Amino acid sequence: MRKEERLAKEIIEQLGGTENIADLASCMTRLRVKPIDYEKVNLNGLKNVDGVMGVVEAETLQIILGPGIVTKVANEVSDLTGQNIRNIDDENNNPFEGLAAKTKAELKEKNATPFKLFLRRIASIFIPLIPAIVASGLIAGITNVIVRSGADPESILIQILNFIGWGLFNYLGVFVGINTAKEFGGSPALGGAAGILIINPGLANITLFGEELVPGRGGLIGVMLAAAFIAFLEKRIRKFVPSAVDIIVTPTLALLITGIVTLIVLQPIGGFISDLITKGLLGLIDMGGIIAGLILAGTFLPLVVTGLHQGLTPVHMELINKIGDDPLLPILAMGGAGQVGAAFAIYFKTKNERLKKVIKGGLPVGILGIGEPLIFGVTLPLGRPFLTACLGAAVGGAFQAFFKIATIAIGVSGIPLAFLVHTDQIILYLLGLLVAYFFGFIFTWIFGFKEEMAKNI
């Protein structure tokens, strides 16, 4: 039996059987499942399935499997259950909306704070876009390295690579608008239209209240505001429009009103919020320097544990849109590097063969910027190594902040991020990565791990 087939069958068994699975989705490392009845789920059994690196309990169960394997397992689960793999947050198409209300309420009480709910919604918008963003960013970054190495920027090869790499970022607002509308219960197409209202070059031809409008002002924050507003408006208008003319009247009124409100209110508000975030972060990094880098990198991993770190994607994009690069991403990337260092220390120190096997499976992808397998399979279950990994990350983050390392696009962390930093900073970024590895290793070796901890793995 293939590994992914075995995993799928064992996961389904611990979830309470095929009839207890309401919905499926997958991201880069996690299989996201919405059970019909949470009381039928054997959480301890699920966590102990060989190949499952951890489980995050939220409105959906997020089963950590690792990159590559998660897609194969998701397909197997889909085949066995008959469930399509889709966006589990699309409430309009969710036939299980009213199921397990008691358990869902308990989960919300346990996990929901306003800030966590806000970040979770932002993450739900951007998680489906991550593969395209990573691929486009990496192609753009590699092209930049090639050009800086002496290639002719006007050559047909470079032009084609730039065309492929940067294309997504020119139209990212449309995709964000689509996903935002879905998240807020509206029509995806109208969400895309709301995104176009923000990024349309035709804005440059409009003068409103004596001021020339600027295409893209407000960035993705403005797009999310406009798309959320059109979704809200669409649902309200539909209540009063006769069904016979709904398909014509509702979207027309929603788009018309949203367009006017966006130009007058939402785009300026998005621009204000965008300026506030970027100036605030840049001010923090400039004033705090080493201290800011230390704090930001050292506290990032707990956000990854909850799966809410994707909610920072619009912040990274706004920094790039406003100042041309992103000094925050290299700092936060040190979180995964600290994990790698801690994992190496545990591997060389422990005699537990099962733990060594888990580390061997998680280290390659950890070095390549996917930290969840090491977090959920190694450091977090052990406890103290998670903290020493954070300390190693903090030192690496201080290094990146001190040298003001910044990326020209966003993508996964680890070694691949070297292609996205400014060409003259590649060596410094990699040195910072080694610093985080080293201190994550040293802190964990000295006081982060004892052999008796491995008994629970």
Automatic annotation (TrEMBL):
Bilayer disposition of the protein: Multi-pass membrane protein
Pfam families, A to Z: PTS_EIIB, PTS_EIIC
Keyword Transferase in record: yes
PROSITE patterns: PTS_EIIB_TYPE_1, PTS_EIIC_TYPE_1
Transmembrane domains' residue ranges: 125-150, 156-178, 190-210, 216-233, 245-269, 281-308, 328-348, 401-420, 426-449
Domain PTS EIIC type-1: 120-457
Subcellular location: Cell membrane
Domain of life: Bacteria
Active site positions: C27
SUPFAM superfamilies reported in the protein's UniProt record: Glucose permease domain IIB
Domain PTS EIIB type-1: 5-87
Main localization of the protein described in the UniProt heading: membrane
Record flagged with keyword Amino-acid biosynthesis: no
Keywords assigned by UniProt, alphabetized: Cell membrane, Kinase, Membrane, Phosphotransferase system, Sugar transport, Transferase, Transmembrane, Transmembrane helix, Transport
Protein name as it appears in the record: PTS transporter subunit EIIC
Organism per entry: Aeribacillus composti
High-level lineage: Bacteria, Bacillati, Bacillota, Bacilli, Bacillales
